[in-house]
Amino acid sequence: MNNSWSEQVSKIHAPLDKALLRALSMILGFYHVAMMMWDPKLYAESIGGFNPVIAPLMIWAICSSMIYGVGFKPRHWFWQILFSPYFSLLILFYLTALRLVA
């Protein structure tokens, strides 16, 4: 059962298994790390502040985007879902929009 769930989740992630999306994921992750390290106060102001929701989601999305970006594929379905590029890319696109629009 465990193996079949892992295969099903892998099939769900198959459309995102593209080199350009991986590169985009890495670029977005590095961009947000760089902005946070360069001037944390300015970055925080531009995304609406670091609160108990935004900060952990941002850290998780950056870590998840790096895992996806380097091409690592977890074997177990739980880890595949936890580090899903669908969620991390959505969060990073949202943060990028907040950063660039504000």
Structure, described:
The structure is a single chain. With about 100 residues, this protein is mainly α. The protein is about 75% helix and about 0% strand. It is built from 6 helices and no strands. It has helices spanning about 1-15, 20-40, 40-45, 55-70, 75-80, 85-100. The chain is elongated. InterPro entries: Cyd_oper_YbgE (IPR011846). Keywords: Membrane, Transmembrane, Transmembrane helix. Pfam families: Cyd_oper_YbgE. This is Cyd operon protein YbgE.
Topology:
Elements: H1 2-13, H2 19-38, H3 40-46, H4 54-69, H5 77-82, H6 85-101
Helix pairs in contact: 2-3, 2-4, 2-6, 4-6
What Rg, in angstroms, do the CA atoms define?
A: 15 Å
Structural class: mainly alpha
What's the order of the H and E elements? HHHHHH
Number of strands: 0
How would you summarize what this structure contains?
With 102 residues, this protein is mainly α.
